[in-house]
Write a structure and sequence with these properties.
This protein is an alpha/beta fold. It has a single domain, classed as Rossmann fold, CATH 3.40.50. It is 43% helix and 15% strand. It contains eight helices and seven strands; from the N terminus they run E-H-E-H-E-H-E-H-E-H-E-H-H-H-E. The protein has a seven-stranded parallel sheet with strand order 3-2-1-4-5-6-7, with helices on both faces. Helix 2 links the parallel strand 2 and strand 3. Helix 1 crosses helix 8, helix 4 packs parallel to helix 5 and helix 6 crosses helix 7. The longest helix has 29 residues. It is globular, with a radius of gyration of 17 Å. It holds the Pfam family adh_short_C2. Keywords: Oxidoreductase. Belongs to the short-chain dehydrogenases/reductases (SDR) family.
Length: 252
């Protein structure tokens, strides 16, 4: 997919960019010719991504749940590069596993603030330059758990379902202004977080792969390549829908 998607001259903003998936998406965008603003709360991890003097990169620390900070991110990108073509809302938190009846209010509010409200705030500010330019894409990284439930993941799943609905709302509200919006829902992917939880790739695969018709877990590059395709002209008639990269998990 990367070989057929040309993002030359475009500016992509990615939240949660210090994480494995965020950086994988950023790397695909860079290979396709884009300039990329990496946005994350973890400034130290952010500094370790990419070359220190790469003029194609910006690194911006931000709490996406903060209205002022999210607005400042968009203002900084426009001040540096004078355009914003793609926003990838990838920042997320996984709250502790709790049944709905036991769910701590703080954990519910944290999931909503970061996973959903943060995406709306970033979209709110990013839509202004997109509307002015008459083009743009908002891509929300949701989850298979936005469409199906898993025990103890009620807050996370509800926030991801909200991301799917938010993408549809943006698509409907702004299609006449040349703006597309989509959600991208990965299944279990072999990220460092998953590897830490299970110990290694073999253990994670043994524990989880049987739930997937594909018989395996996903790779971050597979999700990132799908994201890149959705940014390109080949996907220009795709908007207002959820694209699942889940190995068939939600098909059964």
């Amino acid at each position: 997919m990367s070989s057929t998607t040309d993002l030359s001259g475009q500016v992509v903003v990615i939240t949660g960019a210090a994480g494995d998936l965020g950086w994988a998406i950023a790397s695909q965008c860079l290979e396709a010719g884009a300039r990329v603003a990496l946005v994350d709360l973890d400034a130290k991890a952010l500094a370790e991504r990419g070359g220190p003097d790469d003029p194609r990169l910006m690194r911006l620390q931000c709490d996406v749940a903060d209205p002022a900070q999210t607005r400042q991110v968009v203002e900084a990108v426009l001040a540096q590069w004078s355009r914003l073509d793609v926003l990838v809302n990838n920042a997320a938190v996984v709250t502790p596993g709790e049944k709905i009846g036991d769910l701590a209010p703080a954990h519910w509010h944290q999931a909503m603030a970061i996973n959903l409200t943060g995406a709306w705030l970033m979209s709110r500010w990013a839509l202004a330059p997109m509307r002015k330019a008459g083009r743009g894409l908002v891509l929300n990284v949701a989850s298979q758990l936005g469409s199906v439930a898993a025990p103890g993941r009620g807050a996370y799943g509800a926030s991801k379902a909200g991301l799917i609905a938010l993408a549809r709302a943006i698509a409907v509200d702004h299609a006449d202004e040349g703006i597309r919006a989509l959600s991208l829902s990965p299944g279990a992917v072999l990220t460092s977080r998953v590897l830490r939880r299970y110990g290694d790739a073999a253990a994670a695969t043994s524990a989880l792969a049987g739930r997937y018709p594909a018989g395996r877990l996903g790779e971050v590059e597979e999700v990132a390549q799908t994201a890149l395709f959705l940014m390109g002209t080949g996907a220009s008639f795709i908007t207002g829908t959820d694209v699942r990269v889940d190995g068939g998990y939600t098909a059964i």
